[in-house]
Amino acid sequence: MRFNLAQVFGAVAEANPDRDCIVFGDRRLTFAQTDERARRFARALHEWGLGVRRERAELAPYESGQSHLGVYLANCNEYLEAMLGAYKARVAPFNVNYRYVADELTYLLGNARAEAVMYHARFAPTLGEALRTMGADVRLIHVDDGSGHDPLPGAVRYEELLASVSDEPLDLTPSPDDLYLLYTGGTTGMPKAVLWRQHDIYLNAMGGRNFGTGEEVTSLEEIVERSRPESPGSMTVAPLMHGAAQWAAFINLCAGRPFVMPGTTTHFDPAEAWALASRERVVSMSMVGDAFGRPLLEELETGNYDLSGLLILITGGAALSAPLKKRFLELLPQLTILDAGGASESGSQMGQVSSRGQDASGRFAPNPGAVVVSEDLTRILSPGDDEIGWLAQQRLIPLGYLGDPEKTARTFPVIEGVRHSVPGDRARWHADGQIELLGRDSVTINSGGEKIFAEEVEAAILRHPAVYDVVVTSRPSVRWGNEVVAIVQLADGEAADPDAIVAEAARHIARYKLPKAIVFRDRLQRSPSGKADYRWAKDQVV
To answer: How many Å apart are CA 450 and CA 441, to the nearest integer?
Structure first.
Protein backbone atom coordinates (compact mmCIF):
# COMPACT_ATOMS: atom_id res chain seq x y z
CA MET A 1 0.00 0.00 0.00
CA ARG A 2 1.11 3.58 -0.71
CA PHE A 3 0.46 6.38 1.76
CA ASN A 4 -0.56 10.03 1.92
CA LEU A 5 0.14 12.08 5.05
CA ALA A 6 -3.43 13.40 5.35
CA GLN A 7 -4.77 9.86 5.02
CA VAL A 8 -2.41 8.50 7.69
CA PHE A 9 -3.08 11.31 10.16
CA GLY A 10 -6.84 11.09 9.61
CA ALA A 11 -6.87 7.36 10.38
CA VAL A 12 -4.77 7.82 13.53
CA ALA A 13 -6.92 10.76 14.70
CA GLU A 14 -10.11 8.76 14.22
CA ALA A 15 -8.68 5.91 16.29
CA ASN A 16 -7.43 8.17 19.12
CA PRO A 17 -9.78 11.19 19.14
CA ASP A 18 -9.47 12.25 22.79
CA ARG A 19 -5.72 11.88 23.12
CA ASP A 20 -3.49 14.97 23.24
CA CYS A 21 -2.11 15.72 19.80
CA ILE A 22 -0.41 19.13 19.97
CA VAL A 23 0.80 20.88 23.11
CA PHE A 24 1.98 24.42 22.35
CA GLY A 25 2.91 26.12 25.61
CA ASP A 26 -0.35 26.28 27.56
CA ARG A 27 -2.43 25.42 24.49
CA ARG A 28 -3.57 21.81 24.20
CA LEU A 29 -5.41 20.20 21.27
CA THR A 30 -6.64 16.61 20.98
CA PHE A 31 -6.34 14.57 17.81
CA ALA A 32 -10.05 15.14 17.12
CA GLN A 33 -9.70 18.91 17.53
CA THR A 34 -6.59 19.06 15.36
CA ASP A 35 -8.23 17.01 12.63
CA GLU A 36 -11.37 19.17 12.71
CA ARG A 37 -9.36 22.38 12.38
CA ALA A 38 -7.35 20.84 9.53
CA ARG A 39 -10.58 19.82 7.76
CA ARG A 40 -11.94 23.35 8.05
CA PHE A 41 -8.74 24.82 6.67
CA ALA A 42 -8.78 22.31 3.82
CA ARG A 43 -12.31 23.37 2.91
CA ALA A 44 -11.34 27.04 2.94
CA LEU A 45 -8.43 26.40 0.57
CA HIS A 46 -10.65 24.29 -1.67
CA GLU A 47 -13.37 26.96 -1.79
CA TRP A 48 -10.73 29.47 -2.85
CA GLY A 49 -10.01 27.22 -5.82
CA LEU A 50 -6.66 25.91 -4.61
CA GLY A 51 -5.73 22.29 -5.20
CA VAL A 52 -4.46 20.01 -7.95
CA ARG A 53 -4.02 21.43 -11.45
CA ARG A 54 -2.27 18.46 -13.06
CA GLU A 55 -1.67 14.93 -11.76
CA ARG A 56 1.81 13.56 -11.17
CA ALA A 57 1.78 11.28 -14.22
CA GLU A 58 1.56 14.32 -16.50
CA LEU A 59 4.57 16.08 -14.99
CA ALA A 60 8.35 16.06 -15.18
CA PRO A 61 10.19 15.29 -11.92
CA TYR A 62 10.99 18.98 -11.38
CA GLU A 63 7.40 20.15 -11.95
CA SER A 64 4.49 20.63 -9.55
CA GLY A 65 0.85 20.34 -10.54
CA GLN A 66 -0.49 21.63 -7.22
CA SER A 67 -1.23 25.02 -5.67
CA HIS A 68 1.45 26.14 -3.21
CA LEU A 69 0.82 27.58 0.27
CA GLY A 70 3.61 29.48 2.01
CA VAL A 71 3.73 28.78 5.75
CA TYR A 72 5.36 31.93 7.15
CA LEU A 73 4.98 31.08 10.83
CA ALA A 74 7.06 30.53 13.93
CA ASN A 75 6.36 27.32 15.84
CA CYS A 76 2.69 26.99 16.78
CA ASN A 77 -0.23 24.60 16.46
CA GLU A 78 -1.38 26.56 13.39
CA TYR A 79 1.79 25.53 11.55
CA LEU A 80 0.90 21.85 11.74
CA GLU A 81 -2.80 22.53 11.10
CA ALA A 82 -1.79 24.39 7.94
CA MET A 83 0.28 21.47 6.69
CA LEU A 84 -2.41 18.89 7.46
CA GLY A 85 -5.21 21.01 6.04
CA ALA A 86 -3.27 21.71 2.88
CA TYR A 87 -2.58 18.00 2.38
CA LYS A 88 -6.30 17.27 2.79
CA ALA A 89 -7.04 19.85 0.06
CA ARG A 90 -4.25 18.48 -2.18
CA VAL A 91 -2.38 21.78 -1.80
CA ALA A 92 1.41 21.71 -1.28
CA PRO A 93 2.51 23.78 1.73
CA PHE A 94 6.10 25.02 1.84
CA ASN A 95 8.29 26.38 4.62
CA VAL A 96 9.21 30.07 4.72
CA ASN A 97 12.28 31.13 6.69
CA TYR A 98 10.94 33.87 8.96
CA ARG A 99 14.40 35.40 9.25
CA TYR A 100 14.40 36.46 5.62
CA VAL A 101 14.40 40.14 4.70
CA ALA A 102 11.99 41.41 2.04
CA ASP A 103 14.37 40.83 -0.90
CA GLU A 104 14.84 37.19 0.03
CA LEU A 105 11.14 36.70 0.70
CA THR A 106 10.29 38.20 -2.69
CA TYR A 107 12.56 35.68 -4.38
CA LEU A 108 11.19 32.74 -2.40
CA LEU A 109 7.50 33.47 -2.98
CA GLY A 110 8.13 34.12 -6.66
CA ASN A 111 10.19 30.97 -7.08
CA ALA A 112 7.45 28.94 -5.37
CA ARG A 113 4.65 30.59 -7.36
CA ALA A 114 2.78 30.90 -4.07
CA GLU A 115 -0.99 31.17 -4.40
CA ALA A 116 -1.52 31.72 -0.67
CA VAL A 117 0.58 32.67 2.36
CA MET A 118 -0.28 32.02 6.00
CA TYR A 119 1.71 34.38 8.20
CA HIS A 120 2.18 35.42 11.81
CA ALA A 121 1.12 39.01 12.48
CA ARG A 122 4.65 40.09 13.43
CA PHE A 123 5.86 39.27 9.91
CA ALA A 124 3.24 41.46 8.21
CA PRO A 125 5.58 44.41 7.50
CA THR A 126 8.19 42.25 5.74
CA LEU A 127 5.55 40.29 3.84
CA GLY A 128 3.78 43.48 2.80
CA GLU A 129 7.02 44.90 1.40
CA ALA A 130 7.71 41.69 -0.53
CA LEU A 131 4.19 41.53 -1.96
CA ARG A 132 4.37 45.16 -3.13
CA THR A 133 7.56 44.31 -5.00
CA MET A 134 6.05 41.17 -6.53
CA GLY A 135 2.74 42.71 -7.49
CA ALA A 136 1.22 39.25 -7.24
CA ASP A 137 -2.35 38.33 -6.32
CA VAL A 138 -1.87 36.06 -3.30
CA ARG A 139 -4.44 34.87 -0.77
CA LEU A 140 -3.38 35.87 2.75
CA ILE A 141 -4.20 34.21 6.08
CA HIS A 142 -3.33 36.28 9.17
CA VAL A 143 -2.48 34.43 12.41
CA ASP A 144 -2.65 36.62 15.52
CA ASP A 145 0.41 36.40 17.76
CA GLY A 146 -0.02 39.26 20.23
CA SER A 147 2.32 41.56 18.31
CA GLY A 148 -0.45 44.04 17.53
CA HIS A 149 0.03 44.12 13.76
CA ASP A 150 -3.22 44.42 11.82
CA PRO A 151 -3.96 42.08 8.89
CA LEU A 152 -2.51 43.10 5.53
CA PRO A 153 -4.99 44.40 2.94
CA GLY A 154 -7.16 41.52 1.75
CA ALA A 155 -5.99 39.14 4.48
CA VAL A 156 -8.44 37.05 6.51
CA ARG A 157 -7.86 36.15 10.14
CA TYR A 158 -7.22 32.41 10.53
CA GLU A 159 -9.73 31.78 13.32
CA GLU A 160 -12.43 33.70 11.45
CA LEU A 161 -11.66 31.68 8.33
CA LEU A 162 -12.07 28.39 10.20
CA ALA A 163 -15.35 29.55 11.75
CA SER A 164 -16.74 30.52 8.34
CA VAL A 165 -16.58 27.04 6.78
CA SER A 166 -17.90 23.54 7.45
CA ASP A 167 -15.79 20.84 9.06
CA GLU A 168 -17.24 18.20 6.73
CA PRO A 169 -14.49 16.27 4.93
CA LEU A 170 -13.86 17.27 1.34
CA ASP A 171 -14.96 14.91 -1.39
CA LEU A 172 -11.34 14.49 -2.44
CA THR A 173 -8.97 11.53 -2.35
CA PRO A 174 -5.41 12.70 -1.65
CA SER A 175 -2.78 10.82 -3.63
CA PRO A 176 0.44 9.20 -2.40
CA ASP A 177 2.03 11.20 -5.24
CA ASP A 178 0.89 14.54 -3.77
CA LEU A 179 3.87 16.69 -2.88
CA TYR A 180 5.76 17.30 0.30
CA LEU A 181 7.60 20.51 -0.60
CA LEU A 182 10.62 21.61 1.43
CA TYR A 183 12.81 24.64 0.77
CA THR A 184 16.47 24.31 1.56
CA GLY A 185 19.23 26.90 1.47
CA GLY A 186 21.44 24.22 -0.04
CA THR A 187 24.71 25.06 -1.73
CA THR A 188 23.42 26.98 -4.73
CA GLY A 189 23.27 30.41 -3.12
CA MET A 190 19.50 30.72 -3.36
CA PRO A 191 16.84 28.55 -1.72
CA LYS A 192 15.62 25.54 -3.70
CA ALA A 193 12.37 23.64 -3.29
CA VAL A 194 12.86 19.90 -2.94
CA LEU A 195 9.89 17.92 -4.26
CA TRP A 196 9.03 14.66 -2.51
CA ARG A 197 6.15 12.27 -3.05
CA GLN A 198 4.35 12.07 0.30
CA HIS A 199 4.57 8.28 0.26
CA ASP A 200 8.35 8.44 -0.03
CA ILE A 201 8.95 11.06 2.67
CA TYR A 202 6.56 9.28 5.05
CA LEU A 203 8.45 5.99 4.77
CA ASN A 204 11.85 7.67 4.76
CA ALA A 205 11.59 10.25 7.54
CA MET A 206 8.08 10.73 8.94
CA GLY A 207 7.48 7.53 10.82
CA GLY A 208 6.67 5.00 8.13
CA ARG A 209 9.40 2.57 9.16
CA ASN A 210 10.55 1.08 12.42
CA PHE A 211 13.40 3.07 13.92
CA GLY A 212 15.33 0.01 15.07
CA THR A 213 14.76 -2.47 12.25
CA GLY A 214 13.99 -0.23 9.28
CA GLU A 215 10.93 -2.37 8.53
CA GLU A 216 8.29 -0.38 6.62
CA VAL A 217 4.60 -0.28 7.48
CA THR A 218 2.36 -1.95 4.90
CA SER A 219 -1.22 -0.89 5.69
CA LEU A 220 -3.35 1.74 7.41
CA GLU A 221 -4.63 -0.97 9.74
CA GLU A 222 -1.08 -1.65 10.90
CA ILE A 223 -0.46 2.07 11.49
CA VAL A 224 -3.66 2.42 13.51
CA GLU A 225 -2.92 -0.65 15.63
CA ARG A 226 0.56 0.64 16.40
CA SER A 227 -0.94 3.97 17.50
CA ARG A 228 -3.40 2.51 20.03
CA PRO A 229 -1.07 2.04 23.04
CA GLU A 230 -0.77 5.40 24.78
CA SER A 231 2.82 6.67 24.78
CA PRO A 232 4.64 9.71 26.18
CA GLY A 233 5.01 12.71 23.90
CA SER A 234 8.06 14.16 22.20
CA MET A 235 9.20 17.75 22.13
CA THR A 236 11.12 19.99 19.76
CA VAL A 237 12.87 23.28 20.42
CA ALA A 238 13.93 23.51 16.76
CA PRO A 239 11.94 25.64 14.29
CA LEU A 240 9.30 23.92 12.16
CA MET A 241 10.54 25.93 9.19
CA HIS A 242 13.32 23.32 8.97
CA GLY A 243 12.76 19.81 7.68
CA ALA A 244 14.14 17.97 10.71
CA ALA A 245 11.55 19.53 13.05
CA GLN A 246 8.73 18.80 10.58
CA TRP A 247 9.85 15.17 10.41
CA ALA A 248 9.92 14.96 14.21
CA ALA A 249 6.40 16.39 14.35
CA PHE A 250 4.91 13.98 11.83
CA ILE A 251 6.63 10.96 13.38
CA ASN A 252 4.52 11.74 16.46
CA LEU A 253 1.32 12.90 14.75
CA CYS A 254 1.25 9.78 12.57
CA ALA A 255 1.85 7.51 15.56
CA GLY A 256 -0.79 8.87 17.92
CA ARG A 257 1.68 10.55 20.27
CA PRO A 258 1.58 14.14 21.59
CA PHE A 259 3.92 16.66 19.98
CA VAL A 260 5.10 19.37 22.37
CA MET A 261 6.49 22.85 21.60
CA PRO A 262 7.42 25.76 23.91
CA GLY A 263 5.00 28.67 23.72
CA THR A 264 7.64 31.42 23.49
CA THR A 265 8.63 31.93 19.84
CA THR A 266 10.28 35.37 19.79
CA HIS A 267 13.41 33.90 21.34
CA PHE A 268 14.68 30.62 22.76
CA ASP A 269 13.96 30.25 26.48
CA PRO A 270 15.79 27.17 27.84
CA ALA A 271 14.11 27.46 31.25
CA GLU A 272 10.70 27.32 29.60
CA ALA A 273 11.81 24.35 27.50
CA TRP A 274 12.96 22.30 30.51
CA ALA A 275 9.88 23.24 32.56
CA LEU A 276 7.63 22.13 29.71
CA ALA A 277 9.57 18.90 29.20
CA SER A 278 9.18 18.17 32.90
CA ARG A 279 5.48 19.07 33.02
CA GLU A 280 4.59 16.96 29.97
CA ARG A 281 6.92 14.07 30.87
CA VAL A 282 8.23 13.95 27.31
CA VAL A 283 10.29 10.92 26.37
CA SER A 284 12.43 12.71 23.77
CA MET A 285 13.55 16.20 22.78
CA SER A 286 14.90 17.29 19.39
CA MET A 287 17.12 20.31 18.79
CA VAL A 288 19.87 21.66 16.51
CA GLY A 289 23.44 21.21 17.76
CA ASP A 290 25.36 23.42 20.17
CA ALA A 291 23.33 26.54 19.39
CA PHE A 292 20.46 24.99 21.36
CA GLY A 293 22.46 22.47 23.38
CA ARG A 294 24.67 25.00 25.16
CA PRO A 295 21.88 27.22 26.61
CA LEU A 296 19.90 24.10 27.51
CA LEU A 297 22.90 22.71 29.34
CA GLU A 298 23.63 25.99 31.13
CA GLU A 299 20.03 26.12 32.39
CA LEU A 300 20.15 22.46 33.38
CA GLU A 301 23.25 23.15 35.51
CA THR A 302 21.43 25.76 37.59
CA GLY A 303 17.76 24.77 37.41
CA ASN A 304 15.81 22.12 39.25
CA TYR A 305 13.75 19.99 36.88
CA ASP A 306 12.30 16.51 37.08
CA LEU A 307 13.48 15.05 33.77
CA SER A 308 13.40 11.41 34.80
CA GLY A 309 11.05 10.66 31.91
CA LEU A 310 13.39 12.13 29.27
CA LEU A 311 15.25 9.25 27.64
CA ILE A 312 16.36 10.50 24.21
CA LEU A 313 18.01 13.73 23.07
CA ILE A 314 18.08 14.11 19.29
CA THR A 315 20.19 16.60 17.38
CA GLY A 316 19.72 17.11 13.66
CA GLY A 317 20.89 19.81 11.27
CA ALA A 318 24.12 20.32 13.25
CA ALA A 319 26.23 18.13 15.49
CA LEU A 320 26.33 18.35 19.26
CA SER A 321 29.96 18.73 20.33
CA ALA A 322 31.60 16.04 22.44
CA PRO A 323 32.04 18.17 25.62
CA LEU A 324 28.36 19.04 25.63
CA LYS A 325 27.36 15.40 25.10
CA LYS A 326 29.58 14.37 27.99
CA ARG A 327 28.03 16.92 30.36
CA PHE A 328 24.45 16.09 29.32
CA LEU A 329 25.12 12.45 30.13
CA GLU A 330 26.64 13.36 33.49
CA LEU A 331 23.58 15.41 34.44
CA LEU A 332 21.00 13.06 32.88
CA PRO A 333 22.60 9.60 32.99
CA GLN A 334 19.48 7.90 31.62
CA LEU A 335 19.84 9.77 28.31
CA THR A 336 20.68 8.35 24.92
CA ILE A 337 21.90 11.07 22.55
CA LEU A 338 21.22 10.54 18.86
CA ASP A 339 23.02 12.51 16.16
CA ALA A 340 20.71 12.19 13.16
CA GLY A 341 22.27 12.62 9.73
CA GLY A 342 20.38 13.53 6.61
CA ALA A 343 19.40 16.32 4.25
CA SER A 344 16.37 17.85 2.61
CA GLU A 345 17.36 15.97 -0.55
CA SER A 346 17.91 12.59 1.11
CA GLY A 347 15.68 12.43 4.18
CA SER A 348 16.82 10.53 7.25
CA GLN A 349 20.03 8.71 6.29
CA MET A 350 21.97 7.67 9.35
CA GLY A 351 22.57 8.13 13.04
CA GLN A 352 25.18 7.80 15.77
CA VAL A 353 24.38 7.09 19.40
CA SER A 354 26.02 8.21 22.63
CA SER A 355 25.07 7.07 26.12
CA ARG A 356 26.63 6.87 29.59
CA GLY A 357 28.43 3.67 28.67
CA GLN A 358 28.95 4.29 24.97
CA ASP A 359 30.87 7.20 23.51
CA ALA A 360 30.10 8.35 19.98
CA SER A 361 32.52 6.83 17.49
CA GLY A 362 32.32 9.70 15.03
CA ARG A 363 30.85 7.28 12.50
CA PHE A 364 27.22 6.75 11.58
CA ALA A 365 25.06 3.67 11.24
CA PRO A 366 23.33 3.92 7.86
CA ASN A 367 19.56 3.77 7.52
CA PRO A 368 18.10 1.59 4.74
CA GLY A 369 19.13 2.91 1.34
CA ALA A 370 22.11 4.96 2.53
CA VAL A 371 25.25 4.17 0.53
CA VAL A 372 28.52 5.75 -0.57
CA VAL A 373 29.18 6.24 -4.29
CA SER A 374 32.44 6.90 -6.11
CA GLU A 375 33.78 10.40 -6.65
CA ASP A 376 33.00 10.23 -10.38
CA LEU A 377 29.41 9.04 -9.67
CA THR A 378 29.82 5.84 -11.69
CA ARG A 379 30.00 3.14 -8.97
CA ILE A 380 28.29 2.19 -5.74
CA LEU A 381 31.08 1.53 -3.25
CA SER A 382 31.16 -1.33 -0.75
CA PRO A 383 31.96 -1.27 2.97
CA GLY A 384 35.72 -1.42 3.33
CA ASP A 385 36.50 0.41 0.09
CA ASP A 386 39.23 2.82 1.07
CA GLU A 387 38.37 5.63 -1.32
CA ILE A 388 36.52 8.77 -0.32
CA GLY A 389 33.22 9.12 -2.14
CA TRP A 390 29.86 10.82 -1.84
CA LEU A 391 27.17 10.01 0.68
CA ALA A 392 24.09 8.97 -1.31
CA GLN A 393 20.58 7.66 -0.81
CA GLN A 394 18.65 5.13 -2.88
CA ARG A 395 14.97 4.34 -3.44
CA LEU A 396 12.92 6.63 -1.15
CA ILE A 397 14.25 9.94 -2.51
CA PRO A 398 12.83 13.18 -3.92
CA LEU A 399 11.57 13.73 -7.44
CA GLY A 400 13.77 16.77 -7.96
CA TYR A 401 14.08 20.52 -7.50
CA LEU A 402 11.15 22.72 -8.44
CA GLY A 403 11.72 24.35 -11.82
CA ASP A 404 15.36 23.27 -12.13
CA PRO A 405 15.91 20.33 -14.52
CA GLU A 406 19.69 20.80 -14.62
CA LYS A 407 20.23 20.67 -10.86
CA THR A 408 17.71 17.83 -10.62
CA ALA A 409 19.81 15.80 -13.06
CA ARG A 410 23.04 16.59 -11.18
CA THR A 411 21.79 15.85 -7.68
CA PHE A 412 19.75 12.75 -8.56
CA PRO A 413 21.97 10.75 -10.94
CA VAL A 414 21.44 7.18 -12.08
CA ILE A 415 24.37 5.02 -10.91
CA GLU A 416 24.59 1.34 -11.86
CA GLY A 417 20.99 1.56 -13.06
CA VAL A 418 19.69 2.92 -9.73
CA ARG A 419 18.53 6.50 -9.15
CA HIS A 420 20.34 8.15 -6.23
CA SER A 421 20.23 11.36 -4.26
CA VAL A 422 23.71 12.86 -3.88
CA PRO A 423 23.38 16.19 -2.01
CA GLY A 424 27.14 16.80 -1.80
CA ASP A 425 28.59 15.34 1.40
CA ARG A 426 31.94 13.55 1.28
CA ALA A 427 32.04 10.19 3.05
CA ARG A 428 34.00 6.98 3.56
CA TRP A 429 32.35 3.55 4.04
CA HIS A 430 34.22 1.51 6.63
CA ALA A 431 34.46 -2.28 6.68
CA ASP A 432 32.17 -2.54 9.72
CA GLY A 433 29.38 -0.90 7.71
CA GLN A 434 29.66 2.44 9.50
CA ILE A 435 29.84 5.61 7.44
CA GLU A 436 32.34 8.35 8.24
CA LEU A 437 30.95 11.74 7.23
CA LEU A 438 33.72 14.04 6.03
CA GLY A 439 31.72 17.17 5.31
CA ARG A 440 30.08 19.15 2.53
CA ASP A 441 32.31 19.65 -0.44
CA SER A 442 31.12 23.19 -0.93
CA VAL A 443 31.54 26.39 1.01
CA THR A 444 28.24 26.23 2.81
CA ILE A 445 28.62 27.37 6.41
CA ASN A 446 26.55 25.69 9.12
CA SER A 447 26.04 28.21 11.90
CA GLY A 448 23.58 27.43 14.67
CA GLY A 449 21.84 24.87 12.49
CA GLU A 450 21.35 27.33 9.63
CA LYS A 451 22.93 26.78 6.23
CA ILE A 452 24.65 29.94 5.00
CA PHE A 453 26.06 30.16 1.49
CA ALA A 454 29.30 32.11 1.39
CA GLU A 455 28.78 33.63 -2.04
CA GLU A 456 25.40 35.07 -1.03
CA VAL A 457 27.02 36.84 1.93
CA GLU A 458 29.83 38.04 -0.33
CA ALA A 459 27.33 39.54 -2.76
CA ALA A 460 25.65 41.45 0.07
CA ILE A 461 28.94 42.82 1.42
CA LEU A 462 29.99 43.94 -2.04
CA ARG A 463 27.00 46.31 -2.02
CA HIS A 464 29.08 48.63 0.19
CA PRO A 465 30.79 51.17 -2.09
CA ALA A 466 34.13 51.00 -0.26
CA VAL A 467 34.47 47.21 -0.62
CA TYR A 468 36.64 46.13 -3.52
CA ASP A 469 36.75 42.39 -2.90
CA VAL A 470 35.55 39.94 -0.27
CA VAL A 471 35.78 36.27 0.60
CA VAL A 472 33.52 34.79 3.25
CA THR A 473 34.53 31.80 5.35
CA SER A 474 33.93 30.53 8.87
CA ARG A 475 35.73 29.85 12.10
CA PRO A 476 34.80 27.73 15.13
CA SER A 477 32.41 29.34 17.61
CA VAL A 478 31.51 28.19 21.11
CA ARG A 479 28.00 29.58 20.69
CA TRP A 480 27.16 28.79 17.05
CA GLY A 481 29.40 25.86 16.19
CA ASN A 482 30.75 27.96 13.33
CA GLU A 483 30.46 31.69 12.73
CA VAL A 484 30.65 33.70 9.52
CA VAL A 485 33.77 35.83 8.97
CA ALA A 486 34.35 38.14 6.01
CA ILE A 487 37.82 38.94 4.69
CA VAL A 488 37.58 42.32 3.00
CA GLN A 489 39.81 44.26 0.64
CA LEU A 490 38.87 47.93 0.44
CA ALA A 491 39.10 49.93 -2.76
CA ASP A 492 42.15 52.16 -3.09
CA GLY A 493 41.75 55.34 -1.11
CA GLU A 494 38.52 54.16 0.57
CA ALA A 495 37.84 53.67 4.25
CA ALA A 496 35.03 51.82 6.02
CA ASP A 497 34.55 50.44 9.51
CA PRO A 498 33.21 46.92 10.09
CA ASP A 499 29.88 48.13 11.47
CA ALA A 500 29.13 50.09 8.30
CA ILE A 501 29.91 47.11 6.09
CA VAL A 502 27.69 44.80 8.16
CA ALA A 503 24.90 47.41 8.18
CA GLU A 504 24.90 47.56 4.39
CA ALA A 505 24.85 43.77 4.11
CA ALA A 506 21.91 43.66 6.54
CA ARG A 507 19.79 45.46 3.93
CA HIS A 508 20.08 42.45 1.60
CA ILE A 509 20.33 39.28 3.67
CA ALA A 510 18.89 37.94 6.91
CA ARG A 511 20.60 38.80 10.16
CA TYR A 512 21.77 35.25 10.89
CA LYS A 513 23.84 35.30 7.67
CA LEU A 514 25.77 38.44 8.61
CA PRO A 515 29.46 38.10 9.46
CA LYS A 516 30.33 38.09 13.13
CA ALA A 517 33.70 39.65 12.28
CA ILE A 518 35.39 41.54 9.44
CA VAL A 519 39.09 40.94 8.73
CA PHE A 520 40.81 43.51 6.50
CA ARG A 521 43.60 42.52 4.11
CA ASP A 522 45.50 44.59 1.54
CA ARG A 523 44.78 42.00 -1.15
CA LEU A 524 42.77 38.79 -1.33
CA GLN A 525 44.24 35.60 -2.73
CA ARG A 526 42.45 34.14 -5.74
CA SER A 527 43.26 31.50 -8.33
CA PRO A 528 44.40 32.48 -11.82
CA SER A 529 40.85 31.95 -13.03
CA GLY A 530 39.56 34.39 -10.43
CA LYS A 531 38.08 31.85 -8.03
CA ALA A 532 38.30 32.57 -4.33
CA ASP A 533 40.92 30.60 -2.42
CA TYR A 534 38.85 29.40 0.51
CA ARG A 535 41.72 27.46 2.05
CA TRP A 536 43.74 30.67 2.23
CA ALA A 537 40.71 32.45 3.62
CA LYS A 538 40.33 29.87 6.38
CA ASP A 539 43.97 30.37 7.38
CA GLN A 540 43.34 34.10 7.83
CA VAL A 541 40.66 33.62 10.47
CA VAL A 542 41.42 30.40 12.37
So the answer is: 17
